Amino acid sequence: MTGMMLLSEEQIMNERWRLAITVGATVTAAGLAASLITMLLLKRKTRA
């Protein structure tokens, strides 16, 4: 019984880690995309 509980706790921790990594990667990608778009828009403004 305790072995099964330990396994489920491990699975929960793994899911939390996976979620944290996914959220972190998504936020990073969104930040990079926003920076890229901002840079492109600023370059376009300075050209005009």
What does this structure look like?
By secondary structure, the protein is mostly helical. The chain has one domain. Helices cover 96% and strands 0% of the residues. The chain contains one helix and no strands. It has one helix at residues 2-47. The longest helix has 46 residues, at 2-47. The protein is rod-shaped and about 65 Å long. The N and C termini lie far apart (70 Å). Keywords: Membrane, Transmembrane, Transmembrane helix.
Give a brief outline of the structure:
It is built from 1 helix and no strands. It has 48 residues and is mainly alpha-helical.
Could you list some keywords that capture this structure?
96% helix, rod-shaped, membrane, mainly alpha, transmembrane helix, 48 residues, 1 helix, transmembrane
